[in-house]
Amino acid sequence: MTVKTRFAPSPTGYLHIGGARTALYSWLVARKQGGEFALRVEDTDRERSTQEAVDIILEAMEWLGLDYDEGPVFQTDRMERYGEVINQLLEQGDAYYCYCSRETLDQMREQAMANKQKPRYDGRCRSRHDPEPGVDPVVRFKNPLMGDVVIDDLVRGRVVISNEELDDLIIARSDGTPTYNLTVVVDDLDMGMTHVIRGDDHLNNTPRQINILAALGAKPPVYGHVPMILGGDGKRLSKRHGAVNVLQYRDQGVLPQALLNYLVRLGWSHGDQEMFTLEEMIELFDMGDVNRSASTFNEEKLLWLNHQTIINSAPTLLLEPVRPYLDKAGVDVAEGPDLGAVIEIQKERCKTLVELAEACRLFYGELGEYQPKAAKKGFKGDAATILATLKARLTAIAEGNWTAANLHDLLQQLVDDLEVGFGQVGQPLRVALTGGAAAPGLDITMELLGRECVLTRIDGALNWLAD
Ligand code: GLU
Questions:
Q1: Is residue 442 pLDDT above 80, yes or no?
Q2: d(CA 131, CA 98)
Q3: How confident is the model at residue 118 (pLDDT cuts 50, 70, 90)?
Q4: I want to staple 188 with a disulfide (CB 3.0 to 4.6 A). Which of 34, 169, 193, 256 is the partner?
Q5: Do β-strands 295-296 and 229-230 pair in parallel, antiparallel, or remain unpaired?
Q6: Are the CB atoms for 187 and 212 separated by under 8 Å?
Q7: 205: Cβ below 6 Å to ligand 1?
Q8: Which residues, 6+ apart, have CB-to-CB distance to 21 below 8 Å?
């Protein structure tokens, strides 16, 4: 049997961090078994579903690299099929029309509350045969009256629910449209889902769905209900806690693999290991090791992981990811040093791709204004004389000898000859070359900037000092 899982978001907003984790876990279960993963858009709530939200989900899935073998399947394309199944259940006597008015249902609820019982539909239309004139009925599923529903949940273990606790669920509204529990059951059945991995906010629905599946003569899939994600205050993670929108993290310069790495660890662990490649996640992930209790989202940890991922990535692997951020920042790398070499020396100090793009800026095009504080500190005392001497010596180095090693020796020689501390040469030079930005070693910075650019920037500093 081929494993098949799905992610089934409702397109009512952005893709939430919690949704992305559910999608990842579901994707991992499929990929680990060499199975299939499907994307199903649960858009039957037409008032709350938007095309924009659909686009955002698709974009986020693509950015995360959670590829699907089937879909996106849209539930609104399957309305006819839901209608068929509703009719089938009616015909075989597993569903019935219910004509109860809102007042009747309200009374039922009040009565139950007065008796300190859980509000539930009492099934009074179960054996009704005559329609109520002028009333469009809903359709209810005839839930079994006795016995238990047993769920061997991959995360929770065995969960047993007595049918006495369940009432007859509405599967079609009075306008004929199907409800969530019906559509999910029909889709999971038709699409051949072997595993349903989803948030534990759906655990209440599961016994109902299993009963409907049984009425349709189907074996239920294996379920795995993933616990919630909480904010730092112990409340369910929401906008109040900061960014919870997956694409917002993309815009902040988080690498998709870093976000996936963070999400996989949020609720699952493998010893003390913090960093996982995608291959390792696929190999090691196991729903049976997912925590039963809720996890707490920690943005700092995510950014730490992002930083580590950037540091550990070969520069060539960052070339493509950083490109959109360079474009956005208006950094044109067409002319100038090799981008990979710049990334190599700058990545250590960059927590995000936004910062990395910004750190590349200094190697391409004109240098902007000097940072006032840095200029004040760097361009003081003998700065002008020192820079002029330095320039004379640098001019003597031929293009072919313009290497970090030679430049390093030249700086050292200058410091020795002038009998000054390194800072007295290094500080004005750093400001001259970078405007004051944090930068790696001056020798490698000079090599990458190139002879012409270094001399021009020193000239610029001398002009500034002369003013
Ligand atoms: N559409 C549901 C949601 O977004 C998920 C349903 C399911 O996974 O069964 O919460």
A1: yes
A2: 9
A3: confident
A4: 193
A5: parallel
A6: no
A7: no
A8: 226, 229, 263, 264, 266, 267
Q: Find out whether the beta carbon of 430 lies less than 6 Å from any atom of ligand 1.
A: no
- Rounded to the nearest angstrom, the distance between the alpha carbon of 55 and the centre of ligand 1 is 17
pLDDT in the model for residue 260: 98
Among 181, 184, 187, 196, name the best residue to mutate to test ligand 1's pocket (greatest count of ligand atoms within 8 A of Cβ). 184
**Residue 198 Cα to ligand 1 middle (Å):** 7
Query: How large is the average pLDDT for residues 240-263?
Result: 93
Q: Return phi, psi of residue 268, to 5°.
A: -150, 150
188 ligand 1 Cβ < 6 A: no
Pick the residue whose CA is nearest to atom 6 on ligand 1: 8
For 239, which DSSP code?
G
Whether the CB-CB separation of 24 and 64 falls below 8 Å is answered with yes
Residue 112 corresponds to which tokens in the numbers above? Answer: 């139950």
376 is an active site residue: no
The residues, any chain, with a CB within 8 Å of residue 412's CB and separated by 6 or more, are: none
Asked if residue 8 has its Cβ within 6 Å of ligand 1, the reply is yes
